[in-house]
Amino acid sequence: MIVASLIGTSIEFYDFYVYATAAVLVFPKLFFPNADDVTQLLSSFAVFGVAFVARPLGSILFGHFGDRFGRKGTLVASLLTMGVATFLIGCLPTAQVPGWEFWAPALLVVFRFAQGLALGGEWSGAALLATENAPRNKRAIYGTFPQLGAPIGFILANLLFLVLNVTLPADAFAAWGWRIPFLASAVMVVIGLYVRLKLVETPAFQKVVDQGEVSKLPIGRVFRTSWWQVILGTFIMLATYVLFYLMTTFTLTFGTTAASLDAAKAAAEKAGKPMSQTAIEAFVPGLGYSRNDFLLMLIIGVVFFGIFTLVAGPMAEKYGRRKSLLVVTGLIFLFGLCFVPLVAGGFVGAMAWLIIGFTLMGLTFGPMGAFLPELFPTNVRYTGSAVSYNLASILGAAVAPFIAVALWQAAQGSTWLVGVYLSSMAVLTLIALYLSKETKDADLVAQSS
After folding, report:
1. Nearest C-alpha neighbor of 442 from the set 329, 320, 325, 326
2. Of 3.40.980.10, 3.60.20.10, 1.20.1530.20, 1.20.1250.20, which CATH number belongs to 2-199+211-435?
3. By CB atoms within 10 Å of each CB, which of 61, 116, 178, 292 scores lowest?
4. CA–CA dist 150, 1 (Å, integer)
């Protein structure tokens, strides 16, 4: 069960992050070629955010089937949806192709929506697969394994992009190399399907079936009987989402933007594409690292994400989910206030920024695999935890890169406003955690609404 939940989430997060990386590296110019540099980037991020709008819909759709018909079949369907959408993105003509100026970005939006729909149903099912099969005193530990799929998927996606960047000329990468990570998803999905088709239902859901307590309309029941838990779960996840998408999508933009206007002009002239007057006027300085160097820095940071995701499980089991997350979220608040001195510290400061951020990400993300499902009764657990998780994605992840870029520009290259944004979201999560109850000793099999 643990292996099945880990493999599935790794594949789905790989697919999701392949798009996130491409949204920064190549999609702005390939799908929005007629806009200026800033508009290209913001347009790409807007499409990136479409998936997060789709995720709550996916949580309702897949949550309905997961609570009515079981975890196994629903997880297979979510994996297939993600795999097909990702593969089709890899086959999509770009807006640079005559006749595709409208259809290329339009279909990109459709496929990105399908990715979000799939991930909206994936996470909760994988978390339930692990936690509903776990001994009561090891649920937080078992629940970290589907969470581990996020750093594994991110590392696989970005390593592949890094290898392609190193081995292919820039024009070849832009022409066809970027498609390889998307097309490679098909192989991974076949492996994931093979594992998931061998699953059996969890004891908690089977008991609901045996007792005739299956909910006919889970979304209606969850909002009727567990609306407060939905609100708490949404805001408990908020700081986690904002932190992660600041540390990945935004930092990749900020880290690879030239550190000065002169450097930007020189790089553009070297590429044979001098900056337009509009681009010059809109230029905002970043850290100035090359694409390959910063991808490697990100991958190193995400290794800490994976390590501390696993560390977080035993901590949440020993001290409780709520107490552990209160401490970690407090540290996230302080981390947001340290953005400026860290990024101003050269390579050492930038690397420390990434390592600290991803360490905190692991510590806050790890317990969520147990904490959010434990908030809800068995017969609406799939729907309730999925809706909370994915509503938080709209409030946090969907808008985080867009807001961060706007704040970075407003501060004329400084990250202090971006840090304040993160700290503000941490305050909201601290309030939700304060209002919540400890779920460590909840009986997942006995609960029903």
Report:
1. 320
2. 1.20.1250.20
3. 292
4. 17
What is the spatial distance between Cα 37 and Cα 257, in angstroms, rounded to a whole number?
A: 11
Residue pair 194/83 in contact (Cβ under 8 Å)? The answer is: no
Task: Kindly give, in sequence order, each residue whose CB lies less than 8 Å from that of residue 59, ignoring residues fewer than 6 positions away.
Answer: 120, 121, 124, 383, 386, 387, 389, 390
Q: Which two tokens stand for residue 200?
A: 């059996």
For residue 345, what are the CA distances in angstroms to 202, 287, 294, 340, 357? 50, 11, 16, 9, 15
The CA distance from 407 to 10, in Å, is 32
* pLDDT tens sequence for the chain (449 residues): 667 677 778 887 887 778 877 877 788 888 988 777 777 877 887 887 788 788 889 999 999 988 988 887 888 888 889 889 989 999 999 998 898 988 999 999 999 899 889 888 888 888 888 888 888 889 999 999 989 988 998 899 888 988 988 898 888 988 899 999 999 888 888 888 887 777 777 787 788 888 888 888 899 999 999 999 999 999 999 999 999 989 988 998 899 999 988 888 888 777 777 887 777 877 889 999 998 899 899 999 999 999 999 999 999 999 999 999 999 999 999 999 999 999 989 999 999 999 999 999 999 999 999 999 999 998 899 999 999 998 998 888 878 888 998 999 999 899 999 999 999 999 999 999 999 999 998 877 655 55
Angstrom distance (rounded) from CA 99 to CA 94: 10
- The helix (H) or strand (E) run that includes residue 350 is helix 346-365
CA geometry: angle 226, 199, 440, nearest 5 deg: 40
Task: Give residue for tokens 């955690």.
Answer: 433
First vs last Cα of the chain: how many Å apart? 26
Map out the domains of the chain as residue ranges: 2-199+211-435
Structure tokens at 203: 């004891």
